[in-house]
Design a protein that fits this description.
- With 507 residues, the chain is of the alpha/beta class.
- The strands form 4 sheets. A 6-stranded parallel beta sheet has the order 2-3-4-5-7-9.
- β12, α15 and β13 form a beta-alpha-beta unit.
- α14 packs across α18.
- The longest helix has 29 residues.
- It is globular.
Amino acid sequence: MTTLVHGTDTLTRDALTVLQPGFVGTTAPDWLLRRIGEGLSSVGLFGRNIVSPEQLTALTAQLRAERDDVLVAIDEEGGDVTRLEVKQGSSFPGNYALGSVDDVELTRAVARELGRRLAACGVDLNWAPSADVNSNAENPVIGVRSFGPDPDLVARHTVAYVDGLQGVGVAACTKHFPGHGDTNVDSHDALPRIDVDLATLHTRELVPFRAAVAAGTKAVMSAHILLSALDPHRPATLSPQILTGLLRQELGFEGLIVTDGMEMQAVAATYGIERGSVLAIAAGADAICVGGGLCDEDTVLQLRDALVTAVRTGELPEERLADAAARVRALAAWTQAHRARGAESVSGAAVQEGTAPGTDIGLVAARRALKVTRGKQPYTPVSSAPYVASFTPVANFAVGDETPWGIAAELERLLPGTETGSYADSSVDALLAAAGERRIVAVVRDAHRHAWMIEALDALVAARPDTVVVEMGLNEAEPRGALHIATHGAARVCGRAAAEAVVGTGA
């Protein structure tokens, strides 16, 4: 794929080219601009870098003033994992909501509108969608980020999502290869294992990835998980058998292979980020994602120097690093061409409430995703300011704790005077005292994973049978309450749709 050019300058530029680092601030620091001038080809954005669409547009313009073909990447799944709207909650429902509707045209439309919004702000690589088959309901990190537990459903919606994003010039990065769904450990914290046979992997985990590759996904993100049937020694991100043998050779993927965050403990705790990055490139990865936690110049220089040293000592073939850098540049050229073609169509486009330009597709999708179950008694809609009790689990790292969730703000908009409180144990005495005579709306997230939450709900409904229960995570627990509303995700628009159902104005 590449013509190898020897020389220190070329080697150093290639080492910078394969890095996708983050940084702190809402404008680009001088060190980042300097490294872009020296060969850094990609920058990753996180919630800490974004205040508004206008600020984000100015930031990406600042980066491209230094180098026009720089790749600007973001982790914008919509739903629970949002960086564009980290302080407000997403205008788009996530994968679980879309999978529950199971309308691929709706999924394509949502992804397209999200892609337009990203493109209008100058972002051209999205570390999404999640193609994980959430076959383990106890999974602490995937959950509502997956389209669901059925491989074929996940496959068709993954394809629709890839089509939607790439149709407006934003490269999709399908993740987390070869599948993070059947785990009960978060790879941010430790190394998960999947100990199933090859037949199961091929008929479950790999189905959506095969479909995404066939659909032309421009990038695939590796998972920091150990699949013993494929490689009993190294996690997928560091495994030649998985990245080169399976993804490249067997599945025929020719695009960019991006690692998940190298500072995650599943890799960093055992290998360290420097050796982990060398092993990842040697295994077949093309781009090193780092910056969710480590986001300074020293990290970039350490990884650059580790790669250069590995080539010089013979641990990493120079041809492999050059090939990886060439794939980064090829994707940058694709996105640059799409930006040039799409400049007129996205320039000046306004981002409207609820979604990207000119449509309320995000809210439409959230409303369609609701599943409402009525109790045994006739339901009387809430007509005066209620008390919202949020049962709050610890947020996983990917979602973070900055992004608001729930329905209190949306109920306050419909019923001024709504009050709210947060609870983290099974006792409901304080809750009942705080609520007084007001109707209670209990909001939970993955109640099936938290015994204390189920105990609290049962006690609450026993004391107050007219309680409304809103589940904003996986809809696995038995419905409870006078009205049980499953939103299939905690995006802001999901909260709005649920609030409408609570007061009886939902579509």
